[in-house]
């Protein structure tokens, strides 16, 4: 059993020595990484921090201007909205008035056409119809006279007269 205890002590010592080298390697790797991180942090401090500071200063400087721009934009939007409502009301009023004028013009045109038609009928009844009667009477008298005058001629044939349509009589 003493032999075994010595073997276990030797294995434990070997394990501690291996662990020592592993811990030493980890320490060296951590130190190397730490050195790299410190140099990277220094680069960030020297390069990025001035940029961040200038950006912050710029934001501080621009902030009041941005607030003024936002207020102006809000005022302009309100004004434009009011003007659009006003223009919309005006356009609606113009459209309504135009619609009424078109209706009035249509009524006026309809009444005018009705009056023209009625006047045309009156003229036809009072002028054209009596004129046709007189024209028919004149044709009858002319035919009678030609008949009597044509009978007196016994030597030659009488001229055949072509009838004239009634519509050609009135110009």
Structure description:
The protein is mainly α and 171 residues long. The protein has a domain at 36-120. The chain has one helix spanning 2-152. It starts with a helix and ends in a 19-residue tail after the last helix. The mean pLDDT is 87.
Identify the notable features of this structure and list them briefly.
single chain, 171 residues, mainly alpha, 1 helix, 0% strand
Short description:
The protein contains 1 helix and no strands. Helices cover about 90% and strands about 0% of the residues.
Separation, N- and C-terminal Cα atoms: 157 Å
Low-confidence stretches: none
Rg (CA only) = 61 Å
Tally the helices.
1
Q: Briefly note the structural class of the backbone.
A: mainly alpha
Largest sheet: none
């Amino acid at each position: 059993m003493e032999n075994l205890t010595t073997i276990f002590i030797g294995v434990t010592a070997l394990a501690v020595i291996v662990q020592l080298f592993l811990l030493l390697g980890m320490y060296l790797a951590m130190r190397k990484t730490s050195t790299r991180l410190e140099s990277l942090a220094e680069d960030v401090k020297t390069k990025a921090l001035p940029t961040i500071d200038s950006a912050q200063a710029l934001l501080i400087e621009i902030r009041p201007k941005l607030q003024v721009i936002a207020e102006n934009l809000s005022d302009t939007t309100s004004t434009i909205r009011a003007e659009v409502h006003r223009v919309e009301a005006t356009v609606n009023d113009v459209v309504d008035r135009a619609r009424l004028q078109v209706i009035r013009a249509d009524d006026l045109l309809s009444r005018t056409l009705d009056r023209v038609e009625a006047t045309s009928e009156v003229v036809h009844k009072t002028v054209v119809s009596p004129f046709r009667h007189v024209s028919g009477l004149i044709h009858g008298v002319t035919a009678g006279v030609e008949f009597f005058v044509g009978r007196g001629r016994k030597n030659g044939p009488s001229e055949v007269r072509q009838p004239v349509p009634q519509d050609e009589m009135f110009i």
